Amino acid sequence: MIRTPLRPLARILEARRNGENPDAIERENIRLRHEDMRDRSRLRAEGRLLLLSVAFFGVFSVVGVRMGMLAASEPTEPRASAAGARIVAQRADILDRKGRILATNLETYALYAQPPHMIDHRRAATELARIFPDLEEEDLLEDFTGKRKFLWIRKKISPEQRQAVHDIGEPGLLFGAREMRLYPNGKIAAHILGGASFGREGVSAAEVVGVAGIEKKYDDRLRDPAMASQPLELSLDLTVQAAAEQVLYGGMKLMNAKGATAILMDVHTGEVISLVSLPDFDPNDRPRPATKGFAADSPLFNRAVQGVYELGSTFKIFTTAQALELGLVNPNTMVDTKGPLRWGKHRIRDFHNYGKELSVTDVIVKSSNIGTARIAQMIGVGRQKEFLQSLGMFEATPLEIVEASGGRPLLPPKWSELSTMTISYGHGMSATPLHLASAYATIANGGTKVEPTLLKQAGPQYGPRVMSEATAARSRAMLRAVVTEGTASFGEVEGYQVAGKTGTADKPKEMGGGYYDDKVIATFASMFPAHDPKFVLVVTLDEPVETSGDKPRRTAGWTAVPVAAEMIRRVAPLLGLRPQIEPAMMTGITLTSN
């Protein structure tokens, strides 16, 4: 805008020439400027008033139309809804190898309170304490009458509990939709499944996240919305798992053991058909981890993959198998068993005096520590380490549960010749029962390594060859003789030829070093049927004591072997194995040929 000067020079000079007052020119220009400003302000105010009147008219029109619509509609109770995007909680199911549900989802509700909206705080606290006995009425009342505007009361409630809370009629008690993880089989396969809990939570939904076991290992896959309709299929057989748990629990109680584990594994695919660890827990109500004491005393402890034990004489077959493979011995080679065997200040003794010498087969059948140590000396430190490493004894097993990564074998810090001798019969090196099952599967399937897995496989999953088929066959024959003639005589199951090896190891003290005098880890590693093995079964008992005789008996032959035999008797038919009836001996009849 161009503004006119109040005292234009040309007019001032002209006024002075004409004898006029120059100030009159300035006053006139001021008057004209004020009139122009007043006119523009009036126009601007009139425009604003017009715009405001139009806005008011529009708002009142909308309010009037809405009031008319509400007056003409049916009355309904208003319901509050949470703003924002809904938390995706759908989680894929977990199935056993036959499609039976191991873990699924259940729609339920969470219960929360908004104290400012509550009418009768004391009555609400009293009724909630009656519905949920573990809640304290006074604590609830303190929360309801304090400064809190929101508090969770229960993250999961049953339909019956929801109805009971609804009947209180308290507007400040509200329900939020939830999708919880349900394990319909209770404790069965608890250590495999692990459990799930709520992660990120909102009023109307919550994430379900895995906290242990396979639920945590495959958490991303199970939570992926794109795979919600594709269940995770495991190698477990629910029926076999249930039978194995029942037998193992009974055996643990009968043998007065504080804990037990059993692993059933397919020797060709590596599939774990059953894995049991006792004591166990219900993943629907997973206990909190222990904050004191020893980890192995907790029901959450998975003895199959976290329990690192000296497995005793079950290792002897690895020593003889390697010696056979190297051509150092054959099954009939005689081995010096005179004792004790001296190495420096150390002495190696046998449980019984087996005489001056035994064949390699009898070293296994009678379980001679001295004979096995002599064979290990032939093998040497380097070759023994290489062989055990090829069996997977140096690393944690690759099983698909998060706990498996913590089960690394304990190796001697300095692997001397003495270490080679003691490790040959299962002392001085510790591994998990799953390591043992995998190594026995190598012998059972003809000499090739298989990795244990919890996922259903389409067929055999052979790895690198560890030993020849001939060596594996000779080793299986020795293991069969252990059952028919040796320390595992209670392991014979009619119709199912069982082969295996016992192992009894002194239990190390949790603190202070050394071993207990009266506590052992008893193990029986077996395979069946012996002539064509399909499955490996490892049973381990923690501190067993068999008390039916005059003296307590703790060796595996008296404790772990009978439990394993009963388990094979129960699960073999469930696995589709038909018993083979061996022909009876014919007496008084002479067979002749034409």
SSE inventory with pairings:
Elements (H helix, E strand, L loop, with lengths): L8 H10 L3 H51 L21 E2 L5 E13 L7 H11 L5 H9 L5 E7 L1 H10 L4 E10 L7 H4 L1 E7 L4 E7 H5 L1 H5 L8 E2 L4 H17 L4 E8 L5 E7 L37 H11 L7 E3 L4 E3 L2 E3 L8 E3 H6 L3 H11 L1 H10 L26 H7 L9 H12 L24 H17 L13 E10 L6 E14 L6 E8 L17 H12 L23
Helix pairs in contact: 3-4, 3-5, 9-17, 10-12, 10-16, 12-14
Structure characterization notes:
This protein is α+β, with helices and mostly antiparallel strands. The protein has 2 domains: 140 residues, Penicillin-binding protein 2a (Domain 2) (Alpha-Beta Complex), CATH 3.90.1310.10; 336 residues, DD-peptidase/beta-lactamase superfamily (Beta-lactamase, 3-Layer(aba) Sandwich). The chain is built from 17 helices and 16 strands. Strands 1, 2, 3, 4 and 7 form a 5-stranded mixed sheet that branches. A 5-stranded antiparallel sheet has the order 9-8-16-15-14, with helices on both faces. It is elongated, with a radius of gyration of 41 Å. It starts with 8 loop residues before the first helix and ends in a 23-residue tail after the last helix. About 1% of the residues have low confidence.
**What is Rg?**
41 Å
Helix content: 25-40%
CATH class designation of the largest domain? Alpha Beta
Number of domains: 2
Structural class: alpha+beta
N- and C-termini, Cα separation = 138 Å
CATH architectural grouping of the largest domain: 3-Layer(aba) Sandwich
Whole-number mean pLDDT: 89
Biggest sheet details = 5 strands, mixed
- Unreliable spans: 80-85
Question: How many individual β-strands?
Answer: 16
